Amino acid sequence: MSRPNPKPKADKRRDPFTTALRELRRTLPARLPVRVRRCRLEHGTFGDCRLIEDEPQHFRVRVSSLYSGDAQVFALIHEWAHARAWFVEDPDHDGHFGIELARAWKVIGAGGEDEEEA
Ligand SMILES: [Zn+2]
Hints:
Blueprint: H1 16-27, E1 34-39, E2 47-52, E3 58-64, H2 69-85, H3 95-109
Parallel strand pairs: 1-3
Antiparallel strand pairs: 2-3
Helix pairs in contact: 1-2, 2-3
């Protein structure tokens, strides 16, 4: 690059959180769009997931920025499973949630590398 970059930003492509989110969107889409943001949540809260009824309907996932990178990825996986299981049963930690959580773990546990598209 010939242009100087006085304030280098974190390389989003290599951010584990961004990688995990991209893989979840690609591999395990929810029934509605999922808007994800990292922000300050109260201590002890790693993340949450809500159905936002305003048009266009979507899920809002928030992940606490107060915790380490790994904790943010774990929280993302957990909240993504809530979004996936939302319309199946009571949106709580039930069996369908557990299945979706396992699926999400499998995706992220694969290392987030792009698989060959057949
Ligand atoms: Zn939960």
